[in-house]
Design a protein that fits this description.
The structure is a single chain. The chain has 15 helices and 15 strands. The chain is an alpha/beta fold. Strand 2, helix 2 and strand 3 form a beta-alpha-beta unit. The chain starts with a strand and ends with a helix. Iron/sulfur cluster binds next to loops. Iron/sulfur cluster (SF4) binds next to loops.
């Protein structure tokens, strides 16, 4: 498995908690931007060499807000991109995801989507409390979110993923429980739920500094997480990654490839790439500069060669987040026997306390108890 990520950095307005790279540039920039992405795809074709036809790489349009792309820009991306490199081998089995905001999901937008090979939609709902949505400066209401899910399902898009946030200012446990229940009632097959982070530089962080909002207390966040695990389990979902839940057969293949360290090519301003070995790169976070540079056949990016310790730490962090866990044999193969001994030693106390388990096939996995303190465990196992 390998992935192609395409960053669509346009947002109509900024949500208070968000620190992703996006811009509120007018729509006139969309077509030139999409053309630059196709051009980047063209001159990085050699990097796609590992993505054989058989592997059927996943494609993920993330943002920003990909559903903000005009009809013209969205169709151009797939029509032009289709003639290039791996996109020309698109098969219906491939997972091709677009991120959408509920207020963009209209019958007209779905009609445009039908003309693309997209077969999965990931929608940021975040909460079904309209007061909270307004405070976060989300552009949609809870009704719009529920209606968007219905419209997509009626149009045949059943492979849907919904994002929720917990630990929001003013959110109570019962309200979060109701949100999860209402989402599960819609029969979506995939749910991602994240604890709110106060990222430096965001308006929400500033509000926190000024005392205008309060951080949810830890106990409440843990109760939300526990409720989430219970309700999704009852609904027949597997908890396959710390923040991700799916019905059988509906795991996100694209995100799973990030967690297992497989290569991915990131296209567009602010997109990251990884060669599956030691090289990671990221494109500049500036749409205008990106378009200018790509026009001169230059890729505006920074490259980083990862050292062994960084690679090991990332492996620990990403694999332990998954339900498959971290393979001790793979650690030894990649980083030597010493590192395996170190890892086993560091894991000991967590195993004795029932926070980690060593499976029959030699994988270290977080237990339910361990999931609540995963950050502490992961940092203990790092070097
Ligand atoms: S729509 Fe998404 S990417 Fe844009 S500001 Fe809001 S959370 Fe961030």
């Amino acid at each position: 498995m390998a992935g192609i990520y395409i960053h669509i950095p346009f947002c109509r307005s900024r949500c208070t908690y968000c620190d992703f790279y996006s811009t509120a540039l007018p729509p006139v920039w969309q077509v030139p931007y999409v053309r630059a992405v196709c051009r980047e795809m063209e001159f990085r074709e050699s990097e796609f060499s590992e993505f054989s036809e058989k592997l059927e790489p996943t494609i993920y349009l993330g943002g920003g807000t990909p559903s903000q792309l005009s009809r013209e820009a969205l169709l151009e991306l797939f029509e032009k991109g289709r003639q290039l490199s791996r996109l020309s081998h698109l098969s219906p089995r491939q997972e091709i995801t677009i991120e959408a905001n509920p207020d963009d999901v209209t019958p007209e937008w779905i009609e445009t989507l039908k003309r693309t090979p997209v077969n999965r939609v990931s929608m940021g709902v975040q909460s079904l409390d309209d007061n909270i949505l307004r405070a976060l400066r989300r552009r949609h209401t809870s009704q719009q979110a529920l209606h968007a899910i219905k419209l997509l399902q009626e149009a045949g898009y059943h492979n849907l993923s919904i994002d929720l946030i917990y630990g929001l200012p003013g959110q109570r446990l019962q309200a979060f429980r109701d949100d999860v229940c209402r989402m599960l009632d819609t029969d979506i097959p995939h749910l991602s739920a994240y604890a709110l982070q106060f990222e430096q530089g965001t308006p929400l962080y500033e509000q926190l500094q000024k005392g205008q909002v309060e951080e949810a207390d830890e106990e409440l966040s843990l109760s939300c997480y526990e409720t989430l695990m219970d309700l999704t389990h009852k609904a027949g979902m597997e908890h396959y990654e710390i923040s991700n839940f799916a019905r059988p057969g509906f795991r996100s293949r694209h995100n799973s490839s990030y967690w297992t360290g497989t290569p991915y090519v990131g296209l567009g301003a602010g997109a990251h790439s990884y060669d599956g070995h030691k090289l990671r790169s990221s494109n500049c976070e500036d749409v205008k500069q990106y378009i200018r540079n790509i026009g001169e056949d230059k890729r505006p990016c920074e490259q980083e060669v990862l050292d062994e310790d960084t690679l090991y730490n990332e492996m620990v962090m990403l694999r332990l987040r998954t339900c498959e866990g971290l393979s001790l044999e793979e650690v030894e193969d990649r980083y030597g026997k010493e590192r395996r001994i170190y890892l086993t030693k560091m894991a000991q106390s967590h195993m004795q306390a029932g926070r980690l388990t060593n499976t029959a096939d030699g994988h270290l996995c977080l237990t339910r108890r361990g999931l609540f303190v995963s950050d502490d465990i992961i940092s203990d196992l790092m070097v």
